[in-house]
Amino acid sequence: QKEVEQNSGPLSVPEGAIASLNCTYSDRVSQSFFWYRQYSGKSPELIMSIYSNGDKEDGRFTAQLNKASQYVSLLIRDSQPSDSATYLCAVDSGNTPLVFGKGTRLSVIA
Amino acid sequence: ETGVTQSPTHLIKTRGQQVTLRCSSQSGHNTVSWYQQALGQGPQFIFQYYREEENGRGNFPPRFSGLQFPNYSSELNVNALELDDSALYLCASSWDGGVDEQFFGPGTRLTVL
User: Fold this and answer.
1) Tens-place pLDDT, residues B55-88
2) Which end of chain B is more exposed for a tag (fewer CB within 10 A), N or C?
3) Low-confidence stretches of chain A (pLDDT beneath 50)
4) Angle (nearest 5°) at CA B29 between B27 and B33
């Protein structure tokens, strides 16, 4: 059973701080990793993808991947109240569609 | 470019009934994946359709079935509804099954009473 684990939160950070979201996965052959943002009552929206070890930056978002530790994280710099949402980690092993974690609820306090 | 659309937006059914949910894929996409998202959970993969054929299925019973049409739109059918089927049903479209360019529709909220 392929599993993706996330802390459900809520993670509360003050406005302007760095939010750090973490995810671990069980399938060592996983190749592609995604972070989705989901506002309450809405569908998931892809915000970052990462495929190789190291960091990938896109604006205020940085995804970090460590395949040896089976760990992927998302950093949000200068957090804004509009970043308050649930963040879903998703993993693709190549032969099945995405396996999602349960998500971490982030609350940015103004 | 037209995005992924789903209908209806909300639906209320009673136990034992049957329901059909619809999804129109994004223009140019030939693959549709369906997911069930229960409250407080991540999306769970139901099945995928690629060029009108089922192309992978998650751990869902046979009362969950689907179709894909020549225009690549898709239906999800659920028979003998149970209370636990209450969830947000999401479809996502992509080209040739690729998940890195997979876009979700707005979802259908199904409530089973």
Assistant:
1) 899 999 999 999 999 999 999 999 999 999 999 9
2) N
3) none
4) 125
User: Residues of A with CB below 8 A from B90's CB?
Assistant: 43-44
Distance between CA atoms of residues B40 and A78, nearest Å: 26
Interface with chain B: mutation pick from A27, A43, A104, A105, highest number of B CBs within 10 Å: A43
Tell me phi and psi for residue A81, to 5 degrees: -55, -30
Q: How far is CA A17 from CA A8, A109, B38, in A?
A: 20, 10, 31
The amino acid at B36 = Q
Q: At a CB cut-off of 8 Å and minimum separation 6, what does A66 contact?
A: A53, A72
Rg (CA), chain B: 13
Q: Which of B40, B45, B106 lies closest to A98 in CB terms?
A: B45
Which residues of A are less than 8 Å from B40 in CB distance?
Answer: 8, 102
- pLDDT, one tens digit per residue, over A80-98 is 999 999 999 999 877 667 8
Residue that the structure tokens 């495929």 belong to: A51
What pLDDT shows up at residue B28? 84
Read off the pLDDT of residues B12-29 as tens digits, 9 standing for 90 and up: 999 999 999 999 998 888
